[in-house]
TrEMBL record:
Pfam families: FCD. SUPFAM superfamilies: GntR ligand-binding domain-like. InterPro entries: GntR_C (IPR011711), TF_FadR/GntR_C (IPR008920). The keyword Cell membrane does not apply. SMART domains: FCD. This is GntR family transcriptional regulator.
Length: 196
């Protein structure tokens, strides 16, 4: 088998995101598991909320720097939201940066690295559904609310808002499943059809 560098990088990325399975017959993109999506949301919200709570340990100067970065990031998100020819890929990259900055409150780079490693299936849903389901202005407003609560150190409310924000994917996957059931585990599709 002749793999070029780009193919090898793609293989490593998918395999590292637990989105690829390898068997004797070849490598295949795994079907999305609803249970895995919920588990990813649980882990992600635990890590991000834990990081936000750690902000109390930061010096006022460091806390202010991170909040300023969050606000600049949000400004960029709003600009993309106002652009009729918006780049959803650019917005999603800024969204990832926003959540990476939230993790930086922990002072631990591993926090975001861990989330990056486990969120492959979640990202697949985000990319499949973003342009049709998610509203940029709504996401920006949620981000603003989270920043506002962190600024006044109302961290429990910030975490509640963050959890709600992160768990939205557990509803948005349903439209992707209706349109592309072949992407999902057969048992999840059957359970979805019984309920709807």
């Amino acid at each position: 088998m002749d793999l070029n560098l780009a193919s090898l990088r793609a293989y490593r990325r998918f395999h590292g995101l637990h989105a690829l399975t390898c068997r004797e017959e070849g490598s295949f993109v795994k079907k999305i598991s609803v249970n895995d999506l919920r588990s990813i949301c649980f882990i992600r919200s635990s890590v991000e909320c834990g990081a936000v709570r750690e902000s109390t340990r930061l010096s006022p100067k460091t806390l202010s720097k991170i909040i300023s970065k969050l606000e600049r990031n949000l400004e960029q998100q709003r600009k993309i939201g106002a652009d009729r020819n918006r780049s959803y890929a650019r917005f999603l990259a800024l969204d990832d940066t926003f959540h990476s900055l939230l993790c930086s409150f922990s002072g631990n780079e591993f926090a975001w690295d861990l989330i990056q490693r486990i969120k492959g299936n979640l990202d697949r849903i985000r990319f499949f559904t973003f342009a049709r389901i998610s509203r940029v202005d709504h996401l920006c407003n949620e981000h603003q609310e989270i920043i506002d609560k962190i600024k006044v150190q109302d961290l429990e409310t910030a975490c509640a808002l963050l959890r709600r924000h992160l768990y939205v994917i557990t509803d948005t996957y349903k439209q992707a499943m209706q349109e592309h059931e072949q992407w999902f585990m057969p048992e999840d599709v059957r359970a979805f059809k019984r309920k709807h």
